[in-house]
């Protein structure tokens, strides 16, 4: 079975504030973007960019499109920020921050903007970058239960966490290329194995980003942060 | 596609553990709601939760309360042959770490992977593959769907879906800030409902295909014949008024099971007791089942909303209900809202035939539906 990579985005954590789509498109399309926590901002910026490239537009009719996101720390930084608002008294807890203390909320923000009604959940990031999400996405597409899926990796590491990459990487994969020229063709027919149509093995989102050969999508852009 | 069975279960709630004991407690109309003593809630409007007493002696050194609850589940699981996959579905396992302010001196901050590794080690199943899912309050219901999908498609033979969440200061203050907690009594589907009750809870279910079931020598408790999931694409914390995501999830589950709406004999609802959630669920029920009056129940007025663990706990109660052909009362219900009349009841309700539908909905717009049938498949 052939599927098509129709969109891709990489948003390093340090770049989200100057991300090119941010001012022009994202902030205007996400009315509450400025109130998002940083985890959600980075995730939405990456999803928006990849989805836009794939031809998705906010406000479109509902479609059976899903998002599976890999993350190890999830919303941990937001969790800590929320809890800090309770320290002077639980009655002072921030309702806005509490809403973002779940790692899947970022997907919900994107789903409601684009009208995506497919599977939407978070997996831990064990294995390579986005490996778990990519395997899930491939299974959904092979089963025919979703017409398009986004495999995402999103990581913000708390200050005390071991050094590691941070930011977001998102790939859009569809079973119908809609008459457009895809960025890549993937072969989903192997049992428990993904590959490019050229035969090159695919395990992680990085493998796809590398195959795209676009310096703006290089996995190395996801810089490290944290305790060495 | 292979059949998927529920083979073993274990649970801990404020009303006790074990599916049979818990079912009887629910059937008798008991509630675990009590004033919170774990932290100071005196400055909040809500002050009750369904907490589990855990003695200091029960907590091993370095382990948190969540782990103490999980440890209570293990005796009912450890005799089983090793499973292929462990799916961890707890939602706020890091809350105790954050509240303690332990920082980097703590061995680890209780990320999802810390629980899954710890469970694998404690059960002595070193070959089990680990998966950690988070989809807010549908997490373990989703975990059951993902486990079932893996077994049905031949990707694994068996999966342990396990979750625990506690009533923490973190979650209590958060839900209070959203004005989502009841100031008095949680009353799912009641015309006077005014909020949810939080609860401690842990639940585990082993899913299997025929091969693992045969190897274990255990008779299946039920068959998980259908599952579906869908997003509302509506709001991050409020459900869609038209219940469209839940409707789509139920339709997918029915289609997967090869069942019609009339084949469903009862619904174990998410039933949080909040105005909007319960209204959405009743809308979805009417969309799928029309005007038909049949048992729809919630156990959250009795054991509280146990967040990630809720799906597992409610599914195993549904399994018991399926076997007994009776659903427990909806604790707290006094005056059902008009659409709940003839559906929700303050008394146990019998149902003669059909599958049980288990539904869950959560923040982020997520909805999951499961269909449970007797293992022999003779219900419908």
Keywords:
heterodimer; A: 228 residues; alpha+beta; Peroxisomal Thiolase, Chain A, domain 1; two-stranded antiparallel sheet; 10 strands; 31% helix; B: 380 residues; alpha/beta; 2 domains; eleven-stranded mixed sheet; two-stranded antiparallel ribbon; 11 helices; 15 strands; 30% helix; 21% strand; globular
How is the secondary structure organized here?
The complex is a heterodimer of chains A (228) and B (380).
Chain A: E1 2-12, H1 20-29, H2 38-53, E2 65-70, H3 76-84, H4 95-99, H5 105-114, E3 120-123, H6 131-143, E4 148-155, E5 164-165, E6 167-174, E7 184-187, E8 194-196, E9 201-202, H7 205-212, E10 224-225
Parallel strand pairs in A: 2-3, 2-4
Antiparallel strand pairs in A: 1-6, 1-7, 4-6, 5-10, 7-8, 8-9
Helix pairs in contact in A: 2-5
Chain B: E1 5-13, E2 16-17, H1 19-27, E3 34-35, E4 48-49, H2 65-73, E5 85-88, H3 95-100, H4 112-123, E6 129-134, H5 139-152, E7 158-165, H6 169-177, E8 201-208, H7 210-216, E9 222-231, H8 244-257, E10 264-268, H9 275-289, E11 296-297, H10 300-303, H11 310-324, E12 326-327, E13 349-350, E14 355-362, E15 366-373
Parallel strand pairs in B: 5-6, 5-7, 10-11, 10-14
Antiparallel strand pairs in B: 1-2, 1-8, 1-9, 3-4, 7-8, 9-15, 12-13, 14-15
Helix pairs in contact in B: 1-11, 5-11, 8-9
């Amino acid at each position: 079975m052939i599927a098509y990579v129709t969109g891709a985005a990489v948003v390093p954590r340090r770049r989200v504030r100057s991300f090119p789509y941010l001012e022009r498109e994202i902030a205007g399309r996400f009315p509450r973007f400025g109130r998002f926590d940083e985890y959600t901002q980075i995730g939405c910026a990456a999803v928006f960019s990849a989805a836009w490239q794939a031809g998705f537009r906010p406000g479109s009719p509902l479609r059976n499109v899903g998002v599976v996101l890999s993350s190890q720390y999830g919303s941990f930084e937001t969790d800590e920020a929320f809890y800090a608002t309770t320290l002077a008294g639980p009655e002072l807890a921030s309702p806005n921050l509490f809403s973002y203390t779940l790692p899947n909320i970022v997907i919900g923000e994107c789903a409601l903007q684009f009208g995506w009604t497919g599977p939407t959940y978070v997996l831990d990031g064990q294995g390579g970058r986005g490996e778990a999400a990519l395997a899930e996405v491939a299974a959904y597409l092979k089963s025919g239960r979703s017409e398009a899926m986004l495999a995402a990796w999103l990581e913000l590491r708390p200050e005390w966490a071991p050094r590691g990459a941070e930011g977001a990487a998102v790939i859009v994969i569809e079973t119908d290329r809609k008459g457009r020229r895809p960025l890549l063709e993937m072969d989903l027919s192997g049992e428990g194995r993904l590959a490019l149509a050229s035969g090159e093995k695919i395990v992680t989102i990085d493998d796809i980003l590398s195959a795209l050969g676009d310096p703006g999508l290089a996995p190395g852009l996801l810089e490290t942060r944290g305790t060495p | 596609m292979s059949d998927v069975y529920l083979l073993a279960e274990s649970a801990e709630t404020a009303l006790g553990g074990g599916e049979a004991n818990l079912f009887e407690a629910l059937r008798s109309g008991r509630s675990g709601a009590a004033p919170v003593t774990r932290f100071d809630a005196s400055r909040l409007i809500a002050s009750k939760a369904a907490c589990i007493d855990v003695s200091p002696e029960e907590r091993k050194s370095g382990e948190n309360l969540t782990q103490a609850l999980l440890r209570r589940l293990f005796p009912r699981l450890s005799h089983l042959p090793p499973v292929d996959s462990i799916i961890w579905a707890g939602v706020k396992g890091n809350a105790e770490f954050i509240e303690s302010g332990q920082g980097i001196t703590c061995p680890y901050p209780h990320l999802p992977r810390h629980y899954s590794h710890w469970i694998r080690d404690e059960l002595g199943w070193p070959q089990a593959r680990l998966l950690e899912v988070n989809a807010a309050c549908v997490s373990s219901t989703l975990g059951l769907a993902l486990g079932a999908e893996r077994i049905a498609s031949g990707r694994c033979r068996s999966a342990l879906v396990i979750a625990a969440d506690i009533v923490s200061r973190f979650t209590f203050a958060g839900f209070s800030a959203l004005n989502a907690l009841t100031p008095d009594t949680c009353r799912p589907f009641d015309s006077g409902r005014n909020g949810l009750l939080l609860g401690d809870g842990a639940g585990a279910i082993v899913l299997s295909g025929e091969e693992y079931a045969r190897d274990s020598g255990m008779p299946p408790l039920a068959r998980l014949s259908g599952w579906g999931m869908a997003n509302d694409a509506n709001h991050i914390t409020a459900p869609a008024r038209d219940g469209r995501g839940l409707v789509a999830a139920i339709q997918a589950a029915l289609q997967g099971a090869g069942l019609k709406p009339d084949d469903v004999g009862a619904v174990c609802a998410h039933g949080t007791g909040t105005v909007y959630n319960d209204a959405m669920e009743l809308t979805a029920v009417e969309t799928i089942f029309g005007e038909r009056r049949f048992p729809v129940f919630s156990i959250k007025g009795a054991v509280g909303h146990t967040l990630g663990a809720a799906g597992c706990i409610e599914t195993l109660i549904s399994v018991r209900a399926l076997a007994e052909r009776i659903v427990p009362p909806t604790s707290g219900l006094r005056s059902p809202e008009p659409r709940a009349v003839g559906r929700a009841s303050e008394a146990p309700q019998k149902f003669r035939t059909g599958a049980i539908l288990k539904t869950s909905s959560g923040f982020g717009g997520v909805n999951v539906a499961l269909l449970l049938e007797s293992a022999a498949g003779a219900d419908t």
